[in-house]
Design brief:
By secondary structure, the protein is an alpha/beta fold. Helices cover 30% and strands 21% of the residues.
Length: 349
C-alpha cells in the first residue's frame, strides 16, 4: 500500500502548473492524483504539454469535479482573482488540506492595499489572516505549521533575497532602492497576448507596467517589514526574449557600510541555505547559471557613485520563482526534507 501523499494541481495547463508537474513527477514521496484545467477538461496532460508523453498522469478535469477529501495538498496555478473563492471552497470541503497558492491572491497582508492594486475587494478575507508569505528562507518556521502558504511572485523572490538581509541589518537606505528587473516570456503566462508573440517579443527588450506593476507592493511589504518602516521602491520590470529566467539589478544607497559589508551580510544570511548562493567576489550572476533549477545566485558590486552599491540576483522564474519554491514549501508542510525533488543542476547551455 502506497504511503505517498496525494497531490492536486489547480490550473495545470499553465506554465507554473506544468512546471509543478515536471518537478513533482519525480518526487519520491508524492503522487499526482488530480490535475485541473477547466478549458482543457477531459484531455490527457500530454495533449496540452507534449513533453509529458512518458508520464502516466491523471486526465485534466474541471476543478469542481475533484474529490478534494482524498488529497493531502494542492498547488494553485490559477490567475489572481479567481483563486480566492476556489481555495475557500476547497478548504470548506477538506479543512486539513495544505494549500500552496502560486497566485497573488494571499500575498498582501493589507486588504486595502490588495483592493487598490488588484481592482476589487478580497473575496476570502477570512482566510487572509492565516496565509503565510512563502519566501522559504525568511518564513521557514511559519511555513512548516501553515495550512495556506502564499508563494511569492518571481520578481519579489529575486529582489527580496538580495535586499531583505541588507535592509534588516540597516546597511542600506530602504527609502532609496531602484530595482531594474528582467524576466523571460513565460512570466507573462501561456495565454495569447500580442506582446508575447514571437514577432513582437523576439529580438527586443520591452519595459512594461512602468510604475504600476503589482509586484511592487509585495516587495515594499517585505522590505518595509525588514527595515521596520514603510518604504516605497522604484521597480521597473522588462520582458526579455527568452523562455525562462529572471535577473534583478538593484541599486542601493549605503548607510555607513561598504559593498564588502553587504556581501558579508548576504553570506551570513545564506550560509546554511540549500538554494541561495552568494557568488564569489567579482563573479556576475547570470540567468544561464540557474536555468531549470531551484537555485538563486546573488552578488554585490561597488558602484562608481560614492556610497552606492549594486546588488544582482538571478533565478529561474518558473522554479524558484514559482513552482520550485512552492514544492520547497510543500516539503516543509508535509514533513519531508526541504530539498527533496529540487536538487536538479541548472540546464546549460
Amino acid at each position: 500500500m502506497s504511503t505517498k501523499k496525494k497531490i492536486g494541481i489547480l490550473g495545470a495547463s499553465g506554465y507554473t502548473g506544468a512546471d509543478a508537474v515536471r518537478l513533482l513527477a519525480r518526487h519520491p514521496h508524492v503522487e499526482i492524483a488530480a490535475l485541473t484545467a477547466n478549458t482543457h477538461a477531459g484531455k490527457a496532460m500530454d495533449e496540452v504539454f507534449s513533453h509529458f508523453f512518458m508520464l502516466d498522469l491523471p486526465r485534466l478535469m474541471e476543478w469542481e469535479k475533484v474529490d478534494w477529501t482524498k488529497l493531502d495538498a494542492v498547488f494553485c496555478g490559477l490567475p489572481h482573482g479567481t483563486t480566492q473563492e476556489i481555495i475557500a471552497a476547497v478548504l470548506k470541503v477538506n479543512p486539513k488540506i495544505k494549500i500552496l497558492d502560486m497566485s497573488a491572491d494571499f500575498r498582501l497582508r493589507d486588504m486595502e492595499t490588495y483592493a487598490k492594486w488588484y481592482g476589487h475587494e478580497h473575496r476570502a478575507a477570512s482566510l487572509q489572516g492565516e496565509a503565510v508569505y512563502g519566501l522559504t528562507e525568511f518564513y521557514r518556521e511559519k511555513i512548516t505549521s501553515a495550512r495556506l502558504v502564499a508563494c511569492p511572485g518571481c520578481y519579489p523572490t529575486a529582489a527580496l533575497l538580495g535586499l531583505v538581509p541588507l535592509a534588516r541589518a540597516k546597511l542600506i537606505d530602504a527609502d532609496d532602492i531602484i530595482i531594474d528587473a528582467k524576466s523571460g516570456v513565460t512570466g507573462a503566462g501561456r495565454g495569447l497576448k500580442q506582446n508575447t508573440l514571437f514577432s513582437e517579443a523576439g529580438e527586443g527588450l520591452s519595459p512594461y507596467s512602468v510604475g504600476t506593476h503589482r509586484h511592487a507592493p509585495e516587495i515594499e511589504q517585505e522590505i518595509g517589514g525588514a527595515a521596520g518602516s514603510a518604504v516605497t521602491v522604484n521597480f521597473t520590470p522588462h520582458l526579455i526574449p527568452m523562455s525562462r529566467g529572471e535577473l534583478c539589478t538593484s541599486y542601493v544607497k549605503l548607510k555607513g557600510a561598504t559593498p564588502d559589508d553587504l556581501r558579508t551580510a548576504l553570506e551570513e544570511a545564506y550560509r546554511d541555505e540549500p538554494f541561495v548562493y552568494v557568488a564569489k567576489k567579482g563573479l556576475l550572476p547570470q540567468t544561464q547559471n540557474v536555468r531549470g533549477s531551484n537555485y538563486v545566485q546573488v552578488n554585490v558590486f561597488a558602484d562608481r557613485i560614492k556610497d552606492r552599491a549594486i546588488v544582482i540576483s538571478t533565478l529561474d522564474n518558473l522554479v524558484k520563482g514559482s513552482a520550485g519554491q512552492a514544492i520547497q514549501n510543500m516539503n516543509l508542510m508535509l514533513g519531508f526534507p526541504e530539498t527533496t525533488g529540487l536538487e536538479q543542476i541548472a540546464l546549460f547551455p
